[in-house]
Amino acid sequence: MGDFYQNGIITTLHNLSDRPVEELEADLLGFSRERPLGLILPSLYSELEGEALPKIIDELKPASYLSEIVIGLDRATEGQYRAALKFFGQLPQRHRVLWNEGPRLQALDAQLQAQDLAPKELGKGRNVWYCMGYVLASNRTESVALHDCDIVTYERSMLARLIYPVAHPRFNYEFCKGYYARVAGGKINGRVSRLLVTPLLRALKKCLGEMEYLEYMDSFRYPLAGEFSFRRDVLNDIRIPSDWGLEIGVLSEMYRNYANNRLCQADIADIYDHKHQELSAEDDQGGLSKMSIDITKALIRKLATRGVTFNTELFRSIKATYYRIALDFVETYHNDAVMNGLTLDIHNEEKAVEMFAENIMKAGEAFLARPMERPFIPSWSRVISALPDVLEQLHEAVEADHRDFGQGE
């Protein structure tokens, strides 16, 4: 059970009473009559064959307050797309599956590429971006939640608590970030958030001085959570990265576009576990190694837009400061684990810190070598200005795939 303490400059909505999910859903059903609600699920085809997604679908079936569920399907052949339509056909809510490798969506992507408006790399960012476009095109929902499809501890209360702040007609929140304790299987997880993001933000404060942007980022209890919700109008102007910097990029965009009192975070789960990435210490193009570089670059780019001038000497100072702070955190987390009867391997924690410190320098060197790199996908507002009928084309492509390969409405 969470406490009521408010940390930082972002409103925290706690789980103070373990309110029954049925009560939350009754409220949401009432809200949905005034403000229709939706859900985005970015998925790989392989997740349909895993242990998490089938349970997620079972948990979503009673969520009658949802007007639409939009599924982005990556890495699927035609046969796999047909199988996905059948798999998601269990859902009683209206739903659509975006076949991202299908000829129709590939043709639309080619149009956007010709105008330098398409996502430049495959991955979750691209998948989410097209799903956001379909939500705008469909025009069936006013508030939308998004979460991953690999959550093995999923319960439908997570979705109810995640979407509640942007669904409530009397709340003024445009965006809600989910958070939770990354504890499962007797261990404390979430290494990248615990051992990279938080100590790096603290190091940046020491090296650069107090900045509201850094205070804002440090206010989020789990900044790398893949669960967030927003009002529909947010989708028009948000620019998201196509790499592992997605979550940091989304938070940064919300800071740029909205006042802090329009943003919040909500406690959505006591236990949370999902697919774990390998450390990949020997390969900075995969696993947590690539993730840490992308996340660090996302922070560097945002700080550069706020007038910070970076050079090699500054990156060395940031790295050294980070390293000392992160090692102190290892001891903190170890003691927290012991007191709670959990396990935490100090050796592996410090190996991760060493790799992250090295990758801070790699991220800095990459930024200095390619200062004009544009990892952000253009906002939908910009795309619409270049191709005024793009949303109609996207909507028709998805509907045509559904008609041709699906089973009726």
Automatic annotation (TrEMBL):
This is Glycosyl transferase. The keyword Transferase applies. GO terms for molecular function: transferase activity. Keywords: Transferase. SUPFAM superfamilies: Nucleotide-diphospho-sugar transferases. InterPro entries: Nucleotide-diphossugar_trans.
